[in-house]
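Pilot study result, target chain (302 residues):
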Amino acid sequence: MNTQTIRSATNHNPRKPGPCAAFLRAGKQLAVSTVALLFAAALTPAVSGAEKLVIKGSDTLGAKLVPMLAEEFKTREPGASFEIAAEGSTTGITAITDGTAQIGMSSRRAKAVEISAAAARGVKLKPTIVAYDGIGVILNAGNPVTSLTPRQIEQIFTGEIVDWASVGGKAGRISIYTRNTSSGTYSDFKELAMSKRDYAKSSQKMAGNEQIASEVARNPNGIGYVGLAYLKSPGIKVAAVNKVLPSRETIQSKTYPLARPTFYYTNGVPTGAAAKFLEFTLSPDGQKIAENVGFVPAVVSK
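Predicted structure:
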């Protein structure tokens, strides 16, 4: 009887595992889960933790070209991410010096004082030409003037010539629109077109190419300058310089005088995401994008 009772109890009330057995089983499950997670992590592509590429500087490069390059780059490098700030070439060179960007966009070469300031902080400013650009002198679409001489351009932007009638146009006071002082184009235009003289005090400073084109389009007496990528903006036309218009052909042949290279600046030889993006920019596909935007390629395809 006792034996049957014991058997019955055994059959209907199996002995529950003690706390030690439960602890061991839970530990085993945790170990298996951890191994599974580690294995999954090992199989996850490296791009999931990809480095964000911070690019700062030139509006000429950063308003159109670099964002388009970045979008195409992301289709080839899933997980790549960008932070792009186009606030002028000076800000790009400064960002490399203070370490807040991996690439600094610039439409001018770094100045001696900028190179020295960077060196003092252990930074080596390394320029790479990524495309060539022409600076087009733009007028309101209704302006009858079609061509200006280099001397006339200098006199207009320095304030010596103040009325369109002086250069064959309709009488009207000339309104001058320029880039702001942090812009590489602001500096380049002074050097290329103004014999390094100061701008007229009446000139109005704009944040970017699009703003200049927009103001000139609205003002029948307006004049300004923009990069090649903005020459087809509505409401404006391009003034020839000595009867030569800016184009890929006239820039490559050096017959158009207001042309310059554009740069990516890095701290020495770039590495990581910056190196990959620079390589893509200079690749045939990257240079084709530059050409489609309106730049002259830095690397000629064979």
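One observation from the pilot: The longest strand covers residues 125-140. A full batch analysis is planned for the follow-on phase.
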